[in-house]
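REVIEWER CHECKLIST
Item 1: Sequence provided? yes
Item 2: Single chain? yes
Item 3: Sequence as submitted:
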Amino acid sequence: MVAFGKKLKERSIQEWQGYYINYKLMKKKVKQYSRQLEGGNLERRHVLKDFSRMLDNQIEKIALFMLEQQGLLASRLQRLRGSHDALQEQPDISHMSNLKEEYRAVGQDLLKLLFFVEMNAIGIRKILKKFDKRFGYRFTNYYVKTRANHPYSELQQVFRHVGLGAVVGAVSRNLHELQNNQGSYLSIYDQPVLPLQDPVVDSIRAAVDRLTRSTNFLHFMAQHALIMQEELPSPQDEEGEEEDGRYHFMSLLLNLVNTFLYMVNTYIIVPTADDYSMSLGAAATVCGVVIGAMAVAQLFSSVYFSAWSNRSYFKPLIFSSIVLFIGNLLYALAFDFNSIAVLLIGRLFCGFGSARAVNRRYISDCVPLKIRMQASAGFVSASALGMACGPALAGLLQIRFTIYKLTFNQDTLPGWVMAVAWLIYLVWLAISFREPAREPEGPPKTSEESNHSEAVQDVNLEKGMKQPLLLTSGEIEEEGEDECDGSEEASEDSRTPANSIVAAYRLLTPSVKVQLLIYFMLKYAMEILLSESSVITTYYFGWSTSSVAIFLFCLGLTVLPVNLVVGSYISNMFEDRQILLVSEIMVCVGILLSFHVVVPYTVPQYVCSGLIMFVSAEVLEGVNLSLLSRVMSSRLSRGTYNGGLLSTEAGTIARVIADATITVAGYFGRNMLLNVTLLPSLVICVLSIVATCFTYNSLY
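Item 4: Structure as written out by the authors:
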């Protein structure tokens, strides 16, 4: 991966070279400060004062050049405004066409200025972070806080870019008026949701979206998808995405349907797994093993699907569909075979068919940048909808009949229904999926690019700065390179991806380990809640399968509304790490309220505590993945054994252990099952809270 200093040099506009942030100089200055402080030749306060002055000068240079360029663009627009007014009085098609081209030329120059601002914003963000890491000082907090709201600070010009917004508006409005809509009296302000069919304006909008991207619902949802956005695409890259033929809407839809069906497949058996186990002569708590068998197989399937997606998307999806069809068929036939072994083998087959790594990878590789956020949110929405629909569908399958000695009842119908669903999907996939063309030059995109969350929030933004400092996951990866190599010419070893799980684990920093611990905790707590729900509610409340299905369906339905509230409002008011800690505490509260310490154990207590635990864990997952991507080593951004795979494996291991805990706890009796399974959840949750407080106190 190319270091930021080299990328800045390659992508900078030649005639504007002298106005970019001198990233290389400032990086060398940081090293010089470090050596002088170690030798005792310099005081810390002198370093802070000198570095602040240097950065102020760099930002002033950038801001004044921006103002100069905005003035030139404004002058050109003012001249074109006169021509536009004259054209309205005496319409002329040839002059109108020429005027459009002139506005487009202004738009192209505006696009260059937007990329100029974006590159400098990233450079400022990176050098601030480098300074903090080098000296262990919260300089970013101080610098942003003192400059954000000061009336004479040029920092606002770079990150609020109000003048650029006016120029963008002028170009968009005039090009809209010059379209073939002379009979309409509506402007872009009257039709804000209608897209303008002009490639220049589309490119400008994409650049502005990257420049001003703040946390919103779509973005918060996309964090759950672990899908990385590309860093700093050029206008040519964006146009090329549309022309290279990689994007195919039906193929994207098939990936989302695969995601939906797999989540339905995972949770459709939860309401009836205990009843199915007893009908085959096993204890009700064996449902933990039945449910967890799928997660055990997924530990292995995540690795080989991650590697397979480097070469193809179509073949892994075909293989996945066939294996899932066989797995569900075996699950359904286990009743007539009267074999718990066949039941478990069927669930193992279902786990071996988990193609979620391929689904993520397809979105990362083949979906155009301008709709990738929506596709990522669609991935999460499909997962949430599948999670809700699985138990709901199980609640509807409360019938019993026999065909040719094959039994169809509430236990076997989930298997039969999903087998038919996967068979139909397989036919649709074979007919409609289009394998994208692979780029011949260079290595293929790594599987991490489909599993790694894009990081968008700057945790150091203060009250007056609403926009993040344009941090993307690509930047974070490069930041890790800069810290490791200490020079623009990094060694190959510092950029070589890990070649095994053990090698990847050795690259984990303490902060990454804490984030993985949190991910493990929330997945463990959620799996305990969901997997034992049927056993617990039947024992304490006498709930039927339909009642359990409704409860789980309602839990699943909370995912999207909660993410809407958190992503659109709460994330704009608080830092990610604050939301992280509060969410952990709320998960702990939910666990504590779930314990059976009062006789009798009531439905309101169980439902309310479960809701608190589940909703808090969902919020925690999105924020945790965002923070995880910010502290991941650059060497874990590539290869099969990448950071995304590690987080997926951590969550899957948590589910396996949770399901095993339910089965083991069953030996203590149903009356002890709830408290015995909740106790490990409480211990792990408390440990994660302590680790979070310790880690972030040391970092911040």
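Item 5: Key structural point noted by reviewer: Confidence is low (pLDDT under 50) at residues 181-186, 192-196, 228-244, 441-494.
Item 6: Recommendation: ____
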